[in-house]
Amino acid sequence: MSTLLFDEPGPRARRRIKIATVLGALAALALVVLAVRQFAANGQLGAEQWAPFATWPMWRYLLGGAWSTVLAAVVSAALAMALGLVLALGRLSARRWLRAPAAAYVEVVRTIPALLLVYVVLFALPKYGMDLPLFWKLAVPLTVSNAAAFAEIFRAGILSVERGQTEAGLAVGLTRGQTLRMIVLPQAARRVLPSIVSQSVGLLKDTSLGFIVSYGELFYSGKVLAAYNGLLIQTYLVIALMYLVVNASLSKLARVLERRSSARV
User: Fold this and answer.
1) Which of 85, 119, 117 is nearest to 102 (CA)?
2) pTM of whole model > 0.90?
């Protein structure tokens, strides 16, 4: 259910959204046209400027950075979702000693930028003997930051499941833990799937913070490549296109999974 975390807009709101979408698209198109004209006027669209990107060594280097990006995003997302689920269950617990720490974590971490967490891992932790490997200097702060967001997504999904589902599970002899695991969580996961994928897309974009710790993800690879070949605009346009393809594919996957989940209901 894509409307889980917000109210369904009315006719007037939908009309305003359509108008804002059209105006935004026109403004974006105007900016693209202006940018293309400026690039052409400064010789940035010449074939010789783009010829290096038709060679395999160039793409092999960029695809290596893309793989590092995907690896960091997948590992961070898996850990963040696992931690987020634990936090969500903690916030929903009847025991205050579980509920209070989970709520404090979520409320505090959601206000801290991921960039600040990267600096903490990079500069503060080594002073206390915790010098993490390069990969984990990026994965750990992304996990800590996104776990709070995933916790709220999971909590909203669990709360959206009708109370009667839990009562039905208890009525047939299941324990509360079995009811949660076998009845509530599967339904909640289907309902929040679009939000999970959207948060994962944001996490993937946050991997660009890896350039701070010199982790060889896509953005850092592009930075090194642009410094080497001097093709700053061309390199970053190609990288932006690669990000666009990956994120658009994930969004498309979310829509497909949502339709399939809705068809089973």
Assistant:
1) 85
2) no
